[in-house]
Specification:
Blueprint (H helix, E strand, L loop, with lengths): L5 H5 L12 H5 L5 H9 L1 H9 L10 E4 L7 E4 L2 E2 L1 H14 L3 E6 L5 E5 H17 L7 E5 L4 H13 L2 E4 L6 H11 L3 E5 L1 E4 L2 E4 L1 H7 L8 E5 L13 E3 H4 L12 E2 L3 E7 L7 E6 L1 H14 L8 E4 L6 H13 L3 E5 L10 H9 L3 E4 L1 H10 L14 E4 L6 H11 L5 E4 L34 E4 L11 E6 L9 E2 L3 H8 L8 E9 L5 E6 L3 E4 L2 E4 H9 L4 E11 L3 E10 L8 H14 L8 E4 L13 H8 L14 H9 L7
Catalytic activity: acetate + ATP + CoA = acetyl-CoA + AMP + diphosphate
Protein name: Acetyl-coenzyme A synthetase
GO molecular function: acetate-CoA ligase activity
């Protein structure tokens, strides 16, 4: 039966308001209270132990060099090869026949890739890149769909010490060009296309167009995926199968310094120019490996792990590639979207591969809520024991729905806070230790120092709202913004001093000292002098039984400074009763938060503008709310959504 009512979900919350760890999980959990105690007593010793889970060719001299903040060096003097730690060492340990990836293509084609097979593919690709003149320190751009060659390309770069820069396949030629130019990439790895919502989606034409705008790219390596016709530049373009498949599967890997650059990942900034976040090798691999094992309570011989992100985002880097592989895990990797060819596609995959750990974004959870729990009914999802949430704060209603309907009412939900810049989990419950609260990321993981502070940087009292900061360096931290140390300091380390990292997120501290993320501080509205989080209003709307998803923006208002404008998607069986529904939802928000948070306008929409990674493009909604010309819509899954919203906007104003 479809779970639609709020009451039935809130009834599931224990009287204490928290969910204790399942007894069976707690009894054999990877992380216990002793790990928190160890980290509190000797933070650097704790991270040294975590680094000891990896294979180092040369031991480090010093765990942390913080003599020149905010420029950290971790495990100084130590040397390792990231790819060897992710692949070779498992093969050498006799686990070569273990499946590294159950890969599922959107059209239904599948590939099971063992660690031994992955090692051979990575060695061939490393030899191929070397044959193209790629050397340690060179940058390689990767613009691929969710296919195994994306992982192979990343690991091949890591193996030879090249710096990979993965660009999401939904980005425009201009966006690709700006990143290729900023990174100074000399090789681009792409494909003819990938599959998206049941149809081939071309990629090679975007590369061709991008490379008319930049210089310095000597080679384009093209994977054949969709068999689409592509334009060809002789001397520059080569087919992956022609160059890579014929290479030797033997490759002698070299060790690199712990601070050797591993990858650049571009993330949006307050200016038009994206920020190239630089991550290095030893500290990054230490923290993603430990957190993947700890946060998800990974039992590598029995668990099947599925991170449902795109490999192009940091979630994919850390928890599709480097975390799972460094731990020798078996993962699922899926090319397509949740509704192709049907809305039960994910649960079909969970059933087929007996997935036990699922890591997904709140956006997709709310989409499943909208569709209704009946979509899960034909499938056996009872193998799921840990459910992760990533990308934005998860509202309590979605948390409870996820646990009840996806996790069968028994799975543990781990809500993780971290960023592209942090590289790995920073705040999250440990499933065998933490009594979880729906909607809270809880507390900093062992070895991490986080605080919520006021405008002056002083810790706030429980019950108050402030700004999230990190007060100690951490192994997986960004080392700089590529090409701009000055911008790095100014962006992250200037608000509260050079030894305090300002995350850019607002947070609430509850009476128990647990942290509730409120989203980006630039997603805070100022209504009649009151600072109101868009996340809080969205959560209030979604807690109403008729609403599946909500996006809230602040629009300029001559009276209040900003007015709250809400866009809501109704649940599958809910009826749009026009002004009656709008009045009901306004009253609900007043009751949940207060009169000051009552939306000026509420519009019922069929869809929200989202990127292919599932992020809601609130700036476009602000453009509509303020009757401005729309900004760039090239990264939207479906740009026609904005036409529908724009056409409906005038009818939804409050009298």
């Amino acid at each position: 039966m479809s779970e639609t009512g709020t009451q039935s979900l809130t009834d599931d919350i224990p009287a204490s308001g928290v969910f204790d760890p399942p007894a069976e999980l707690a009894a054999q959990a990877n992380v216990t209270q002793a790990d928190y105690d160890r980290a509190a007593e000797d933070r650097l010793g704790f991270w040294a132990d975590a680094a000891g889970r990896l294979d180092w060719t040369k031991p480090w001299d010093e765990v942390l060099d913080w003599t020149n903040p905010p420029f950290a060096k971790w495990f100084t003097g130590g040397e390792l090869n990231v790819a060897v730690n992710c692949v070779d060492r498992h093969v050498d340990a006799g686990r070569g026949e273990t499946v590294a990836y159950h890969w599922v293509g959107e059209p239904g084609d599948t590939r099971d890739i063992t660690y031994a097979q992955l090692k051979d593919e990575v060695c061939r690709a490393a030899n191929a890149l070397t044959s193209l003149g790629v050397q340690a320190g060179d940058r390689v751009a990767i613009y691929l769909p969710m296919i195994p060659e994306a992982v192979v390309s990343m690991l091949a770069c890591a193996r030879i010490g090249a710096v990979h820069m993965v660009v999401f396949g939904g980005f425009s030629p201009d966006a690709l060009a700006s990143r290729v130019e900023d990174a100074g990439a000399k090789v681009v790895i792409t494909a003819d296309g990938g599959y998206r919502r049941g149809a081939p989606s071309a990629l090679k034409p975007a590369v061709d167009e991008a490379l008319t705008k930049v210089s310095g790219v000597d080679h384009v390596l093209v994977v054949k995926r969709t068999e689409q016709d592509v334009d060809w530049t002789e001397g520059r373009d080569q087919w992956w199968h022609d160059l890579v498949d014929g290479q030797s599967a033997e490759h002698e890997a070299q060790a690199f310094d712990a601070e050797h650059p591993l990858y650049i990942m571009y993330t949006s900034g307050t200016t038009a120019k994206p920020k190239g976040i630089l991550h290095t090798s030893g500290g990054y691999l230490t923290q993603v490996s430990w957190t993947h094992w700890a946060t998800f309570d990974l039992k590598r011989d029995t668990d099947v792990f599925w991170c449902a992100a795109d490999v192009a985002w940091v979630t994919g880097h850390s928890y599709i590639v480097y975390g799972p592989l460094s731990n020798g895990a078996t993962s699922v990797m899926y090319e397509g979207t949740p509704e192709t060819p049907h809305r039960g596609r994910w649960w079909e995959i969970v059933q087929q591969y007996k997935v036990s750990i699922l890591y997904a974004a709140p956006t997709v959870v709310r989409t499943f809520m909208k569709w209704g729990a009946q979509e899960l009914e034909p499938f056996d999802t009872s193998t799921l024991r840990v459910l992760g949430s990533v990308g934005e704060p998860i509202n309590p209603e979605a948390w409870l729905w996820y646990r009840k309907n996806v996790g069968g009412g028994t799975a543990t939900v781990v809500d993780t806070w971290w960023q592209t810049e942090t590289g790995a989990h920073m705040i999250a419950p440990m499933p065998g230790v933490t009594a979880t609260k729906p909607g809270s990321a809880q507390r900093a993981i062992p070895g991490i120092s986080a605080a919520v502070v006021d405008e002056e940087g002083k810790p706030i009292e429980p019950g108050a709202t402030g700004y999230l900061v990190l007060t100690e360096p951490w192994p997986a931290m960004l080392r700089t913004i590529w090409g701009s140390d000055e911008r790095y300091v100014e962006t992250y380390w200037s608000r509260y001093g050079k030894d305090v990292y300002f995350a850019g997120d607002g947070a609430k501290l509850d009476e128990d000292g647990d942290i509730w993320l409120l989203g980006r501080v630039d997603d805070v509205m100022n209504v009649s002098g009151h600072r109101i989080s868009t996340t809080e209003v969205e959560s209030a709307l979604v807690s109403h039984p008729t609403v599946a998803e909500a996006a809230v923006v602040g629009a300029t208002d001559p009276t209040t400074g900003q007015g709250i404008v809400a866009f809501v998607i109704l649940r599958g069986d809910a009826q749009d009763s026009g002004e009656d529904l709008v009045t009901t939802l306004r009253q609900h928000v007043r009751k949940e938060i207060g009169p000051i948070a009552s939306p000026r306008q509420i519009m019922v929409v069929a869809e929200l503008p989202k990127t292919r990674s599932g992020k809601i493009m609130r700036r476009l909604l602000r453009d509509v709310a303020e009757n401005r010309e729309l900004g760039d819509v090239s990264t939207l899954t479906d740009s026609s959504v904005m036409d529908l919203i724009g056409a409906k906007m005038p009818a939804s104003s409050e009298d």
